[in-house]
Amino acid sequence: MSQVRRQTARPRPSWGWQDDAACRGEDLVLFFGPDGERQPERDIRERKAKAICGQCPVRAECLDYALSRPEKYGTWGGLNEDERASERRRRMRRAASAGISAVA
């Protein structure tokens, strides 16, 4: 009999926090970037996006959402893709050392 691989059910996200997000109404390209973007332009764009995130009242909720999914692209909660991967690993190590099996 073949084994069936089961996915862990993720809780349905609550989107209410997005109504209060500082990025609401901003151009999505600022947070996700265009195809073929070169590094100098990306650095400038990400600094601008992170400045908006820095003033956001729901930054923690946004970051928690992105880490729990995981969102692979864009700036979420003030962190880019690489920064979120590092944060995800940090949270997993912290949870493992505390004996907890939670990421977010």
From TrEMBL:
Residues 22-86 form the 4Fe-4S Wbl-type domain. Binds 1 [4Fe-4S] cluster per subunit. Following nitrosylation of the [4Fe-4S] cluster binds 1 [4Fe-8(NO)] cluster per subunit. Its cofactor is [4Fe-4S] cluster. The keyword Lipid metabolism does not apply. One of its GO terms (cellular component) is cytoplasm. InterPro entries: 4FE4S_WBL, Whib. Residues 76-104 are annotated as: Disordered. Pfam families: Whib. Belongs to the WhiB family. Acts as a transcriptional regulator. Probably redox-responsive. The apo- but not holo-form probably binds DNA. GO terms for biological process: cell redox homeostasis; negative regulation of DNA-templated transcription. This is Transcriptional regulator WhiB. [4Fe-4S] cluster binds at C23, C53, C56, C62.
